């Protein structure tokens, strides 16, 4: 069985698309997608030796070596142009996911869809997508073991289409903002509690220019989120 988090990622894989899962670790996602007939073939990319071996072991154990290639390398460098139709990158920070996309841009030329699951900082991904011709087409949020995960889905298109207020949308997610699922409220209430705690601390500290700036930034973020989260 796949974790709820990875199942939520898998839900956005279009049937019949060739898949690359980057930072695959145990290759659970590609194994699941192939075994369930969602995709005809897959590539699992891993940069670290241990997880790379785990991925190879898992694919062999499931008898899928003919249809899943496990490749060792940094980000999208394990792919050739036109080899896959959908790329998943899950379980990392948003800034790392954005840097993998940025460094491997040329490999995305024929890719139709990106499914990205940042553990933190989804804003980095939304910003990258918008700057690189990818239109955000769906978002989801799942809660598992007290952790809250975001899933972002993008295809090439009109980068500004989903956004109303850009600042709010990039931080909170335009689809999530509209739907406000339960984990969304929980996540941002948690964040705000955290920001307010930090704010109180800085307000007690020395009133230098740096702290004044930090206070203003935090107050602005709190106002922004309070204005959106119901
Ligand atoms: N994608 C799986 C999931 O969501 O359960 C595994 C997540 S695991 C926390 C992150 C994996 O990404 C690690 O195995 C790590 O080695 C790999 N990774 C990190 N940076 C990478 C990069 N630049 N290229 C390929 N893999 C990378």
Automatic annotation (TrEMBL):
Coiled-coil zones: none
Keyword hit for Transferase: yes
GO molecular function (one): tRNA (adenine(22)-N1)-methyltransferase activity
Entry keyword annotation includes Methyltransferase: yes
InterPro entries hit by this protein: SAM-dependent_MTases_sf, TrmK
Example of a GO biological process term: methylation
Record keywords: Methyltransferase, Transferase
Designated name of the protein: tRNA (Adenine-N(1))-methyltransferase
Organism: Cytobacillus horneckiae
